[in-house]
Inverse folding.
C-alpha cells in the first residue's frame, strides 16, 4: 500500500462535509416584552416636541403604557394649556393627541416586526375619560 493510500491519510483529504440549512424561525416579538421600549419612545417624542414639553408639569406621568392600553393623563398639563387647548373640546384634543403619537407607534411596530396592532387609548382629565381604539400599521 502506497503511503498516500493509507486509510488515515485518506480521511484527511476526504473529510465529511456538513451542509448548513438555514432554519426559518416563526418567532415574533412579544408586544408585552416591548412595553418599556414603547413607553420610552412615547415619552421621548413628547420631550422632543417643545410646545408640548413646555406645558407639562411631570412628563413621566403623562403617558403610561400597559398590556392592554395607553393611558394619557391630561391633568399633567399646566392649567393655562388645559384651558386653551383641552377644555374647549376634550374629545377633539384626544383624537389629535392620538394623531400626534401615531408615527411613533408605526415606527415601534416596524421595529418589533409587527405588521399592525390595535392600540386602545384612555385619556383622563379631572373627571372626564375618553376611550378610543386605533389600528396602526407599521411603517414600510
Amino acid at each position: 500500500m502506497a503511503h498516500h493510500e493509507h486509510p488515515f491519510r485518506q480521511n484527511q483529504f476526504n473529510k465529511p462535509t456538513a451542509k448548513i440549512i438555514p432554519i426559518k424561525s416563526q418567532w415574533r416579538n412579544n408586544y408585552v416584552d416591548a412595553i418599556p421600549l414603547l413607553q420610552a419612545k412615547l415619552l421621548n417624542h413628547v420631550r422632543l416636541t417643545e410646545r408640548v414639553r413646555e406645558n407639562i408639569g411631570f412628563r413621566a406621568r403623562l403617558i403610561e403604557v400597559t398590556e392592554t392600553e395607553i393611558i394619557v393623563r391630561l391633568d399633567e398639563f399646566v392649567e393655562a394649556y388645559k384651558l386653551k387647548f383641552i377644555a374647549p373640546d376634550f374629545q377633539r384634543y384626544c383624537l389629535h393627541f392620538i394623531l400626534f403619537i401615531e408615527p411613533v407607534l408605526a415606527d415601534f411596530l416596524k421595529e418589533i416586526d409587527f405588521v399592525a396592532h390595535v392600540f386602545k387609548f384612555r385619556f383622563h382629565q379631572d373627571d372626564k375619560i375618553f376611550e378610543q381604539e386605533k389600528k396602526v400599521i407599521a411603517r414600510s
Q: What stands out?
A: The CA atoms of residues 103 and 139 lie 8 Å apart.
